[in-house]
Amino acid sequence: MPGNLSNSVVPTPDELSAAQTGRRERKRQQQLDHLADTAWALFEAEGYEAVTMERIAEAADVAKGTLYKHFPVKEALLRHRFHRELRESQAGLVPVIQAEAPGAARLRRFFALSAEWSERHRRYLLPYVQYRLAEPRHPNDDRQRSGLERIFTALIADGQEAGCFRRDVSPTVLAVYLEFLYLAALLRWLTEAASSLPGEFESMLDVFFGGLEVRV
């Protein structure tokens, strides 16, 4: 005789809806990754400037409308690719950064690694950064967030807990300040106002840690 249905493993309507939503989201993410990866392969093979959105749609075997629905411009494809790279690299970054002492040393190590990555991707970074700065800001839209602010917040909070950084300013606020200093240093290098990105990051961090006032 069948057991009590209330005790059997029968998904509720809410559980079914959540599962369907999860499948749809996974499928959507797979399509976004496919489009961004197709675009990246073309950029590497044919040059960023030479590749058109129509060329990307053709290579990805999707309608132009589908591509434009998800990515209105090429720079949005770069954003997706770069943000995914950062997310996927975080597990490997953690032990490398945590090998340093909390505070300034961890942030300096992160920026040294960031400089290495940026040098490998230099030809794409100026259009990416210009797009990010011009993009309307929607704080609740995770697609716009690179993940840097979260990393900076964690590293600054670690430094505060260790007594290395002042604690009268929220780590979240300090992370926002640092993110825009980072972008300023990166832009100076990309526009050839600075010859060395590691050196530019070091100078920026010196100002961030020490401020402008002369201390005697």
From TrEMBL:
Record feature DNA-binding region, as residue ranges: 52-71
HTH tetR-type domain location: 29-89
Bias (Polar residues) ranges: 1-10
Keywords: DNA-binding, Transcription, Transcription regulation
A Pfam family assignment: TetR_N
UniProt-listed SUPFAM superfamilies: Homeodomain-like (SSF46689), Tetracyclin repressor-like, C-terminal domain (SSF48498)
GO terms, molecular function: DNA-binding transcription factor activity; transcription cis-regulatory region binding
Region (Disordered) location: 1-29
Residue intervals passing through the bilayer: none
Listed name of the protein: Transcriptional regulator, TetR family
Lineage: Bacteria, Pseudomonadati, Pseudomonadota, Betaproteobacteria, Neisseriales
